[in-house]
Amino acid sequence: MAEETNHNEAGEVAPSTVDKQAPTVAEEHAPSTDSPEATDIPTSNAPDPKAANPETNPNAAGTKTAPPKREKPAAKADAGEKPAAAKAAKKEKAPGVEDKPFTEFIQQDYLPALQKAIAQQGVKDLQLSFVKQKIPVKGMEQSGECWQIVGNYPDGVRHFNVYFPDETIQGKKAFSCYEGKQPSTIESFLIDERKITLDLLIWGLMQRLDGQKWLGRN
């Protein structure tokens, strides 16, 4: 009977069981194909969804909770935009003395201020009055009455009148003056000014009297 030869003694290497099975396993789970195909062979890089902790493994089976949405910061208010309350609190401009009724303004504001300004120029005891009468100019006796400021100097010779035919300081105005006799001419007064103010009325008459050399320093 022939003695059986041991593979190790004969120098041959016995085939490994893994080597015998590997081709079969590879053929069953990874068939050759020209296009990539998914297999059911687990890999070391992809944890088993059933075994992994769903809190730390994004591939874990189960319902995924979407991350909370960040709320957008509220838009900053425009630096130049003022709150409605601040706009409402803005005070309206106080009315000036010129906004008073015509006769009230003349008697309460214009006459006292004019008297003071003329006295400061050295004219004492000047009589000022505010009356509604006919225009004391030759040829205008039938023109009707209008409001006017009448000024009489202490000597009784010098006289002047400021006329307000429209009964408003913003309307037409005229001036006349005379010495010893009734005036024959009447002239416009402050016709180039867009808005008449108390100071402008005082300045205009002072300029006119100064032109006549009727102020104390003349």
From TrEMBL:
> Which intervals carry biased composition (Polar residues)?
32-46
Region called Disordered, residue ranges: 1-100
InterPro entries membership? DUF2996
Q: Where is the composition biased (Basic and acidic residues)?
A: 1-10, 68-81, 89-100
The protein's matches in PANTHER family, at most eight in alphabetical order, are given as: DUF2996 FAMILY PROTEIN
What protein does this entry describe?
Answer: DUF2996 domain-containing protein
